[in-house]
Design goal:
341 residues; alpha+beta; five-stranded antiparallel β-sheet; three-stranded antiparallel β-sheet; 14 strands; elongated
Length: 341
Amino acid sequence: IDHASGRELAAHQADLPLAPASLTQLMTAYVLLGDIRKNKLSLGEQASVPQAATEVDGARVFLKAGEHISVDTLFQAMLVQSAGDAVLTLVTATDGSEAAFVARMNREAKRLGMNKTRFMNATGLTMPGHESSARDLALLARALVRDFPERLTFFNQKELAFKGTTHYNANQLLWRDRTVDGLKAGRTVQAGYCLAASALRGDQRRIAVVLGARSDTHRTQDALQLLNYGFENFDSVLLYRARQPVKVVKLYRGASPSVNLGFTQDFHLLIPHGSGARVKAQVITQQPMMAPVRKGQRLGILRLTLDGQPLGDHPLVALQDVSVAGFVGRSWDSIRLLFER
C-alpha cells in the first residue's frame, strides 16, 4: 500500500484470515504507545516481571520473576526479539492481565477497520481464532507510522544486547535495503514466515505485508519485490494540505460574500510514475450557492483526470461556517440574483 493515501497497489488473497505470528505485537505496540502518549505509561519506569511471563512459550529474553526491567528495554525486547516474556510484563503492568489488554487490542482493531482480525493473545502464539489478514496488518502498519512517527526507531532497531546475549532482528530487509525502516518479522510453525515492512525513498513511503511464506528468504524477497513494485510504478502526490482552500466560491445571502472549499485532511493522489504534470483538475459546484453554510458541509466536487481519463471525483467541503446576512444584505443579494441568472 501507499502510506500517504492508503491506496492498495498490489494484493493477493489479502483478506484471507491467517495466523499472524508475532506481527500481533504491532497491535500490542500500538496500544502501548497510546498509553505512553496519554502518560499512562513511561519508557523510563520499571515494570515487575510476573511469574506467568517466565513460563510463556516462544521467543524470550529469559526474564526472572520479580525482577524490574525498564519499559524502554521491554519494548526493545518485544520488537527486536519478539520476546513473549517482555510482552506479558508490559501488558500486565498496564492492564493487570493479558485478557484485559487483549480486549483493548480488539477494540483498536475494530476502530481501525481491521475486519478480518481477532486477537486472542498479545504475543502472537498460535491459538484457535487468533487471526488477521494481510490487508488488516497493512492498515495497522500504516496507523503505527502515521500516529507514532516519533517512535519508528523502535521498529528498525537491528539488535539488542541484553544480559550478555545479543539478539538480532529477524527483519532481514533492515540489512539488505537502507530505505527500509521497519516494521516487524514473525514466525510460528502454523503461521509460517511473516513480515510487515515499511520503506521510505525520498518523500514516498510504501508498506508491504507478507504472510505464510515458506522461509525467511521467501518472505524477504517477496516483501522487497512488493516495495520495489510500489516505488517504481506509482507516485503519491500531495495535492492539497488540510484546510487549504481549493476554491473560493461566491455565496449569496451570507454574512460573508464567499466560502472556502477544501479538504479536512491532507489530500494525496496516487498516480502512475511520472504522470503528475498531466493531471487536470476541475471544481464542480451547484450555483447559486446560498447561506447558511456549516463547516464540513459538502458543497462541491474536485474532478481529476489523467490524459482525459477519469481519476475520480472527490468531495469538497466548506472550511468555515457562514451565517445568514441581515435583512439589508439578504435583500441586496436577492436583487443581484435577479440580474445574474
